[in-house]
Amino acid sequence: MRVPKVNHARIESDARDRAQFILGAISLVIWFAVAFALGVKWFIDEDTPQPILMAGGIALAVAAVPWLAYKPLVRRLRKRATSNG
Question: What is the pTM of this model?
Answer without folding.
Answer: 0.81
